[in-house]
Amino acid sequence: MKYRSCHLIEHGISIDVSSIKACCLSRDFNKGQLMIVPSYYDNIIIWDKLFEIKRYQRLLQKESDLDACEGCYNLREEDWDEEDYISYINFDHWSQCNSNCIYCGVQRYKPKTKNNVLNAIKELIKQKKFRNTGEITFQGGEPTILKEFDQLLKLFINEGVKIRIHSSGILFSRSIRDGIKKGQVTVVISPDSASKDVYKTVKRVDKSDKVWANIKHYRRNLKGDLQSLVKVKYIIIPGVNDTYEEVTLFLEKIKQLDIKSVIVDVEYAYANTNKGNISPHVYILMDYIEHFCKENGITYDLYDSALYADKERTFEKTSVFNKDELKQSLEKFKAYRIQSNIRYN
Ligand code: SF4
Fold this sequence. Notes:
The protein is of the alpha/beta class. Helix content is 37%, strand content 18%. It contains 12 helices and 12 strands. Iron/sulfur cluster (SF4) is lined by residues 6, 8-9, 22-23, 25, 34, 68-69, 72, 74-75.
C-alpha cells in the first residue's frame, strides 16, 4: 500500500544519551524529533516493545505526517515495507568528544557508560531483527574515543552493512581505515577550514595539522570507488568561515590531498533561525564549492541544513566564478556576514 513515509520511520532508530528516536534529524527547534522511547537511560532495550511503538507510528503516519516529520525532505510516497526489523541505526549515545565545536549543542558531561547498547545490538542481531539493507551511522560524541566503538564496528562489518562514521579526525582509527579498505565504511571529517586560526575558532582546540594529516592518512593508497569513502565536510558558519579566502584555502587543500568527496552544510542554528531567509552569500559560497568540485571531478553533496536551504532557495544560481567577480558578489552581501544569533556555550 502506498503512503507517505520514510525509511527511518519504517526501519530506523537513533540511540542518544537518554532516549531512542526514529532519526536524528530535526527540521524545527520547536517540533523536536520523532521519539520512540523518551527515557531509556540504562534500561535494557526491549525490542518487541520498540517495534510495537514503531508499528503505531507507521499507522499514524499513514493518516497524515507525524508532527516531527512535517516538511522533512526524506518523506516519499511509496509502497512501504510493513515488517518489523531495523536496518538503520544512528549511534548518538555518548557525548564525550576531543573537539569542542562552536556549533555543537551536545553537552560534554560524562554520562554513565551505556553497556546496554552493545548488548542490545547483539540481541537485535540474535533475534534476526536486523537487516543489512540500510546504513549504520556514528555521530555522537567522537566515535574513536567511544569504549565499545571497535566492537560495534566489528559486529556491523560482519553483518555486511554500510557504515558512516562522523569523526573529528583528531585521532586516527585503524578500524575505520580497515573498514574503508573493505568498502564498507565511509568516514566524514569536518575541518570547516584549512587555516589553523579559523580551525581553532571553530573547534576551540588546536588540532588543524593533525586532522589534515589524518585525512591524508585515511586517503592514502585508496583506488577506484574506495577513494570517495573519505569525505571532507565544510559547514558554512556565517561570520566565522564564510569568506572567499577561507573557502578557497579549503578547496586548495582538497585538491592537494586528492580528496574525491566534499560535503557542504550550513550551521544548523543559523539555518534554523533564518529559515527561508538564508543570506545570498551562503548560496554563492555553496555554488563556488559545487563549481570547484565539478571542475575537479569531486563528488559534491549537501547535508541536512544545506539541503533545506537549497530547497528554499530563491537566489539565482551563481554562474561566474573568476576570483574578482566572486569576491565582488560576496562583497555586495557583506552586511549579511553576521554571526548566528544562537551559538552554544
Ligand atoms: S524527521 Fe524525516 S527522516 Fe526523521 S523519521 Fe521523520 S520523515 Fe524520517
